[in-house]
Amino acid sequence: xxxxxxxxxxxLKTAKGQLEAVIRMTEEQRYCVDIAVQISAVDAIIxxxxxxxxxxxxxxxxxxxxxxxxxxxxxxxxIKILGKYIK
Length: 87
Known about the structure:
By secondary structure, the protein is mainly α. The chain contains three helices and no strands. It has helices spanning 3-27, 32-68, 71-85.
């Protein structure tokens, strides 16, 4: 596994642990603001993991597509995912 994807995997595992904690907090009917803060933290980690995956994709697959002359398809993919990311 490439280093950037390992970074993303570690972030996703961290997010998973935090999400499990949020679920427990919700089941225990903890203070709503505390739960909301933790949900925001999970969201931030997932976004960071997504960025690591996209960066790796651009640095590998997209770069290779320019060498092979097939960049239009890869650029369309990146634009499509960025459109979803910024919503």
